[in-house]
Amino acid sequence: MLDLGLTPQTLAQNDGYMGFLRKHYDPSPAGRNDRYCNTMMERRNMTRPCKDTNTFVHGNSDDIRAICDDRNGEPYRDGLRRSRSPFQVTTCKHKGGSTRPPCRYRAFKANRIIVIRCRGGFPVHLEENFIPPRP
Asked: Which domains does the chain have, with CATH numbers?
């Protein structure tokens, strides 16, 4: 039997990180418009039922992971971490109506600070309702 040194805790952390990437990470988006949101939400299996809001973070995954330590992150509140630098994001908001497919989304582009929850040095949750204060 092959022993990879993976403990149940490590596997669970990896599942959380992989879920984060599936739901929230797109390194190089095309368009960042309503069509982008409609396509990505369906491609990432968030349309059965239609998810109300989801944010995709763009850029380098290492920069996102660095929020979990002091390289690019700082403690925020309730165990969350806030990025020290802004990220390009696209937030997809369901246009309303039925929660059954076909789902239609409106895209909102921004360049902003993000807030995440980390477990074992990996992002596992993006705080969707974080709105950075205006300077």
From this structure: 24-126 (3.10.130.10)
